[in-house]
Amino acid sequence: MQLELANITIDYGPRRVLAGASLTLRAGQVLVVAGANGSGKSSLLRVLAGLQRPSAGTATYELGGARYQPEDAGWLLGWVAPDLQLYRELTAVENLRFFADVRGLRKTRAELATLLEEVGLAGRGDDALATFSSGMAYRLKYAYALLHDPPVLLLDEPTVTLDERGAALVERVVARQRTRGLAVIATNDSRELRYGDYVLRLG
Question: What angle do CA 151, 156, 161 make, to 5 degrees?
Fold first, then answer.
């Protein structure tokens, strides 16, 4: 598993938020993208998720000798972000089952319960997302991201609504991801710099 950035540039009109970023990230490694709000961190992650095109340059994933552009690599990616929307009227299990079906996965009730337990939502599978606190809802986003054991994990503001135990969950998730692939984390929290083998500072 490998991610290659080649001269990635992101412009918003006359304002350049990222200029010619190039690097190679390999399996077992974590990149932290650091900077203040508005520095382009989330924009870079959206490029890596195939949700936004860079103004210049390319991002390429390589797995098993095959190369993929981000817009064609959704099946490789797990994604957690403040603006990620799940279905508030559905229960936790119903949300996960829906997204599993979208990906062509067949998950048993027991498997989904185990995943919820891993993210600290044991016993809440039948509760509607609308009843969750902001921290609990963010934990469900982690369950969504890990549903298909992605080789690439993209985390935008990974602990933004989480308490101390939630932050410990993120640390476990990042450590596990190193054994499964690679991760890119965007943050303005200096405590999260420790997650990275590499730090790309913006702004």
Answer: 120
Whether residue 125 contacts residue 117, with contact meaning beta carbons closer than 8 Å, is answered with: no
pLDDT digits (tens, 9 = 90+) for 75-125: 999 999 999 999 999 999 999 999 999 999 999 999 999 999 999 999 999
- To 10 degrees, the CA torsion angle through 116, 177, 184, 194? 100
| Cα within 13 Å of Cα(139), Cβ side | 27
In angstroms, rounded to a whole number, what is the distance separating the alpha carbons of residues 26 and 2?
Answer: 4
Residue 115, by phi and psi: left (phi above 0), alpha (psi -120 to 50) or beta? alpha
Q: For the chain, list the domains and their CATH numbers.
A: 2-83+134-201 (3.40.50.300)
Strand partners, 34: 187, 201
